[in-house]
Specification:
The protein has helices spanning 13-24, 56-60, 77-91, 111-120, 144-150, 167-180, 196-207, 218-227, 232-246, 256-261, 268-274; strands at 5-7, 29-33, 45-47, 65-69, 95-99, 125-131, 152-155, 184-188, 212-215. With 280 residues, it is α/β, with parallel strands linked by helices. It has a domain at 5-134 and 165-188 and 252-262: Rossmann fold (3-Layer(aba) Sandwich), CATH 3.40.50. The strands form 2 sheets. Strands 3-2-1-4-5-6-8 form a 7-stranded parallel sheet, with helices on both faces. Helix 1 packs across helix 6 and helix 8 runs antiparallel to helix 9.
Length: 280
């Protein structure tokens, strides 16, 4: 296995799963975080802030493998990640795993698709992972608060289905990519597609509380995000994502998780049962 491995975004929901999965596999991991307080205390860490170019070289010094993630909902991802990719090549990084998003390869102007091209054109061996929406958005992410406080999910997802995936499966796929130094592009989804009403019912059954999905209009969702203080560029990004859900573009079920890891992805009911205490 390539070592050490720098994991960016290490304090996020997916980043924590990546750090845990890689360390359990015996990898030498370096966490990249913006502030020390967000780092896992028992794992090596380094400060990395894409808006501060001086933090890039120290973060990647001596690294052989790089798991790269963009800040969430960030339309400026290419400008922020581009210098890190360039410096990774100069520093002798041997392999990059870039965590992109399902479907961006169908839109050449999508920020994450632009980053994909930067990675693929870098001259570094690469793996592109394109996961669907995380199951953990319901348990740890931006949807969790309304479930706990109001027994409700408020989104402009319409009746569109999504093949939600657990971050644990994404992390397992990333580990396999690094262990095998796989070059290629992989679409990561769960093994079933659910609409948000079905997801709400599964959470309710697991947690013992009634959870209801309320389908918002895009305008209502945007207004709520704005009231919550989300920056305008991120709001626009969020609106585009859920327009794709409503259109049915996020319902695809792909076999790549099992191809990479040798096992089926976590089902939503399994996820809900494991995380039931988070909603109680």
């Amino acid at each position: 296995m390539l070592q050490p491995i720098l994991i960016t975004g290490a304090s996020g929901v997916l980043g924590r799963a990546l750090v845990s999965t890689f360390t359990q596999a015996g990898a030498s991991v370096r966490q990249a975080v913006r502030t020390r307080e967000k780092a896992r205390p028992d794992v090596d860490f380094v400060r990395l802030d894409y808006t501060d170019p001086a933090t890039i070289d120290p973060a990647i010094a001596g690294v052989q493998g790089l798991v790269l993630m963009a800040p969430p909902l960030d339309p400026d991802a290419p400008a922020k990640l581009g210098p890190a990719i360039t410096r990774a090549k100069e520093a002798g990084v041997r392999h990059i795993v870039f965590v992109s998003a399902l479907g961006v390869n169908h839109n050449e102007q999508a920020p994450l698709r632009v980053v994909e091209h930067l990675v693929m054109d870098s001259g570094i061996s690469y793996t592109i992972l394109r996961p669907n929406f995380f199951m953990e958005n319901f348990s740890e992410g931006f949807i969790a608060a309304s479930i706990k406080a109001q027994n409700a999910i408020f989104l402009a997802a319409g009746e569109g289905k999504t093949s939600f995936i657990s971050v644990r499966d994404i992390a397992a796929a990333a580990l396999a990519a690094v262990q095998k130094e796989l070059t290629g592009e992989f679409d990561l989804t769960g093994s079933e597609a659910l609409d948000h009403a079905e997801a709400a019912r599964a959470i309710g059954e697991a947690s013992g509380r009634p959870v209801t999905y309320h389908a918002l209009t895009e305008e209502q969702m945007v207004a709520g995000a704005r009231q919550a203080g989300m920056p305008e560029p991120n709001i626009g990004y969020l609106a585009v994502l859920y327009s794709a859900v409503r259109a049915g573009y996020m319902a695809a079920i792909m076999p790549d998780v099992q191809r990479l890891t040798g096992r089926k992805p976590t089902s939503f009911s399994e996820f809900a049962a494991t995380n039931a205490s988070r909603w109680q």
